[in-house]
Amino acid sequence: MTVIRDGHPMGAPSKTEGWKSFCGQTFRTRKEWYQTCRSCSKYQDCRTENRRQTRCTANQSEVMRQASSRQATITSMRPEIQQQRAQQLAQWRTENPEKFQEIISKGRAALRQNRSYAMEVYVASLLPTLEEQVQIRYGSFRRQLDFAERSVTPHLWVEMDGPHHFLQVVGEKALLEAQWRDQKLMEAALAKKVCLIRVAMKCFHGSGHRRMMLPWQELFLNLVKQRPSGVFCLGELYLSVPWVSDQLTIFKSPTEHIGSCWPIR
Q1: Angle in degrees, CA 125, 131, 135, rounded to 5
Q2: Distance between CA 188 and CA 50 in Å, rounded?
Q3: Residues 36 and 147 grouped into a single domain
Q4: Same domain, residue pair 66 and 187
Q5: Containing domain of residue 46, as a range?
């Protein structure tokens, strides 16, 4: 009979039979058996396999999986790791512009039922001269705008903001990231002295957000026509964002605003 004692395979001790090894040899004492097994390749292989199975069983437990997940999260949050990933991504974008645009196009195709997409379709039909999906840079910050017109100075930037800019649609982390990018875009617009118009979903009719309410549409078209330098936010939802400041103009309604950049003369 074979038994496992202290993780080691050994034969059962007996006064008549002694200690038996896997090789078939019999030893009178455990000391003799152990000294021989230490140099036995079959015993060492069995011992290694036993340890491997023990580790695999432990690693597959729920406690170990949770510990590994926590450690992986901590490691990925290290600044040097994030910087390395950002550099690799930037290099890949530069070397593979066609693949990057293909990924962007597929992502946009998947959002055709999204409320922000419906808003963008309406604005595109309202102002067909605007460029769609324009890349802008401000230092190391890079952003893809919904619409832009760069043929006339000052430049015009237009953003359609769905619920993920104001509410935890996906989660708190996604909301904070979206609002951080919105703040950087505001800083870029102020530094470049362009006209940035942000339109919230509340400016559209609730049924599918496919048409802008007429008072908001008149205000929006007036802003596009006059094109004053500054940041203009249409909708009272912008009062709740963390990047709100006195440097931008927020329209709580088409006739009520907060800020010093309005009315347009």
Answers
A1: 135
A2: 61
A3: no
A4: no
A5: 2-72
More confident residue, 130 or 27: 130
Answer whether 133's CB lies under 8 Å from 121's CB. no
Question: Do residues 232 and 156 make contact, with C-beta atoms less than 8 angstroms apart?
Answer: no
Quote the CA–CA distance of 119 and 78 in Å, as a whole number: 38
The C-alpha atoms of residue 126 and residue 112 are separated, in whole angstroms, by: 18
Looking at the fold, whether 68 and 136 belong to one and the same domain comes out as: no
Give the total number of structural domains in the chain: 3
Query: Is 151 in the same domain as 242?
Result: yes
Asked if the model's pLDDT at residue 196 lies above 90, the reply is: yes
**CATH number of the domain that 227 lies in?**
3.40.960
Phi and psi (nearest 5°) for 243?
-95, 10
Considering the domain architecture, whether residues 31 and 97 belong to the same structural domain is answered as no
d(CA 259, CA 178): 23
Residue 264's pLDDT is 42
Strands 26-27, 19-20: pairing is antiparallel
Q: How far is CA 30 from CA 2, 8, 27, 50, 192, in A?
A: 14, 12, 7, 21, 84
- Which tokens is 204 given? 């559209």
Q: Which residues contact 55 (CB under 8 A, 6 or more apart)?
A: none
Q: Are 68 and 85 members of one domain?
A: no
Non-local CB neighbours of 36 within 8 Å, separated by 6+ positions: 21, 25, 27
